[in-house]
């Protein structure tokens, strides 16, 4: 067997201390599930098998427009379809997924956002065709909330989707123009719609005109936030706006 070339030997010498440090880190701080803290077999994992198995897909018959389980179309879409032509979510907002999203937001756990984005990218969604999309745009945070949280979870999720499906991503053209109260504080859909009405705008030089744009968020409850953002995109010339989220409150 011929000896390894000098470059390969040098890389081996450089990587050996890193591997040793990684082994020591795994011993002192073993990788743990982002939800239940159970020890993980691999550091690249984020959720343990038990918590991952708890993710509850939205199954059965869905409204073809808003994606809620039940009649197609649902009563709300029959009466007032709204600006989104299609809305889908990966899983129900409950159990381990709810805990993961809360830890992601409140604990600045960006790795949870990355993991959930990768899972959503691999999820087969009914009535959803990735090749029909032309651009992804995450729901933006107001600068004050972005500073407080440290990252925009919707942007992290959207990046994972863009990588997985080779889609262009707009991070800076859709903006939140005013700070709004947390949507969870609003009691009903009318209050949520009023809360975010006019809260989004599109910057000059945007890429949305004439394109099918997909808005990305972590959780959808009534869809008020996505609807307000979609109205801003349509006013800017988007041909069609769809919505996609990791979780859906039922």
Q: Could you please describe the fold and organization of this structure?
A:
The structure is a single chain. This protein is of the alpha/beta class and 250 residues long. The protein has two domains: 17-53, no CATH class; 60-248, 3-Layer(aba) Sandwich (Rossmann fold). It is built from nine helices and six strands. A four-stranded parallel beta sheet has the order 1-6-5-2, with helices on both faces. It has a two-stranded antiparallel ribbon with strand order 3-4. Strand 5 (212-220), helix 9 and strand 6 form a beta-alpha-beta unit. Helix 4 (95-106) packs across helix 5 (110-122).
Topology, pairings included?
Elements: H1 6-28, H2 49-53, H3 75-79, E1 86-92, H4 95-106, H5 110-122, E2 135-138, H6 143-149, H7 153-165, E3 174-176, H8 189-196, E4 200-202, E5 212-220, H9 224-235, E6 240-248
Parallel strand pairs: 1-6, 2-5, 5-6
Antiparallel strand pairs: 3-4
Helix pairs in contact: 4-5, 5-7, 8-9
Number of domains: 2
Q: Would you give the CATH topology of the largest domain?
A: Rossmann fold
Shape: globular
Query: Which percent band covers the strand fraction?
Result: 5-15%
The main β sheet shows up as: 4 strands, parallel
Q: How much is the average pLDDT?
A: 88
Helix and strand content put the structural class at alpha/beta
- The poorly predicted ranges are none
- Largest sheet strand order: 1-6-5-2
């Amino acid at each position: 067997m011929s000896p390894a070339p000098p470059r390969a030997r040098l890389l081996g010498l450089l990587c050996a201390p890193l591997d040793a440090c990684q082994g020591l880190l795994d011993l002192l701080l073993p990788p743990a599930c982002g939800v239940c803290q159970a020890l993980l077999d691999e550091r690249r994992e984020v959720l343990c098998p038990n918590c991952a198995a708890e993710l509850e897909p939205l199954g059965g018959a869905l409204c073809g427009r808003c994606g809620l389980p039940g009649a197609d179309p649902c009563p709300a879409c029959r009466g007032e379809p709204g600006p989104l032509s299609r809305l889908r979510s990966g899983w129900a907002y409950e159990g381990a997924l709810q805990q993961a999203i809360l830890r992601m937001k409140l604990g600045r756990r960006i790795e949870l956002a990355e993991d959930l984005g990768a899972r959503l990218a691999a999820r087969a969604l009914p009535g959803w065709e990735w090749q029909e999309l032309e651009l992804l745009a995450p729901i933006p945070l107001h600068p004050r909330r972005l500073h407080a949280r440290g990252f925009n979870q919707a942007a992290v999720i959207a990046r994972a989707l863009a990588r997985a499906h080779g889609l262009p991503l707009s991070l800076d053209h859709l903006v939140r123009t005013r700070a709004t109260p947390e949507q969870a504080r609003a009691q009903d859909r009318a209050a949520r719609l009023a809360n975010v009405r006019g809260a989004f705008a599109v910057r000059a030089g945007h890429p949305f005109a004439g394109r099918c744009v997909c808005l990305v968020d972590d959780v959808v409850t009534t869809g008020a936030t996505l609807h307000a953002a979609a109205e801003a995109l349509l006013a800017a010339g988007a041909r069609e706006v769809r919505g996609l989220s990791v979780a859906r409150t039922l």
